[in-house]
Amino acid sequence: MKNYKSALAFFVLFFAVTFAFAQERPDALKLYNNGNYKEAIAVCEQEIAENPNNIDSHVVLCWSLVANKQYSEAEQRATQARTINSYDVRLIEVLGEAKYFLGKNNEALNFFERYISNVPETAGRVGRVYYYMGEIYVKQSRYEHADIAFTTAVHTDPLRDYWWTRLGYAREMAGDYKNALVAYSKALELNPGQYDATRGKTRCESRLQ
């Protein structure tokens, strides 16, 4: 009976300590959303060490690595995490972001296209994905494609003045000065100090005279 009580006391103490530790541990997603990327990375690494198949921890880890500009590591960790679940759209998207920032444009496009084909238009990262796609198309001088991508991006998130500026630039490069002027004007409506939009608007007005 004494041994039973001792064992029971041990397990009660063990679970109490475990529960208290779990309660005290910071929330990695909250840390990420608050811009505390290094702290989020540390928490995720600890969670993954305890449960290597915790896909949510892998996702937040990769988001935090990209936000902290650790692009190569984000690419590596997202690739590894996809061995757990290759269909997780969050991993597909963040892998596209990592490759975008590493200059692997064709690979990034591939992942971005897979992401948008598998999520609704209202998904949280759709706007930024279309924005990144637009930037890739600009680099490839595919300005009409860039127009479509940026247009979708600002439709999803219409308050991004820089996205409107880039839409204006894509249209300007495609020779569509009238609609470029519309985009530049919208950017300046949102942010009168948007220098690139001011210059673009001036160029387009000159072209249309």
The largest pleated sheet is described as: none
Mean pLDDT: 91
**How many strand segments?**
0
Order of helices and strands: HHHHHHHHHHHH
Beta-strand portion reads under 5%
Number of helices: 12
Low-confidence stretches: 7-17
> Structural class, please?
mainly alpha
- The CA-CA distance between the termini, in Å, is 97 Å
- Oligomeric state: single chain
Estimate percent helicity. Answer: over 70%
Structural shape = elongated
Radius of gyration: 23 Å
Model description:
By secondary structure, the protein is an all-alpha fold. 77% of the residues lie in helices and 0% in strands. The chain is built from twelve helices and no strands. It has helices at residues 2-24, 28-33, 37-50, 55-67, 71-81, 89-101, 105-116, 126-139, 143-156, 161-173, 177-190, 195-208. Helix 6 (89-101) runs antiparallel to helix 7, helix 10 runs antiparallel to helix 11 and helix 10 runs parallel beside helix 12. It is elongated, with a radius of gyration of 23 Å. Mean pLDDT is 91; it is low at 7-17.
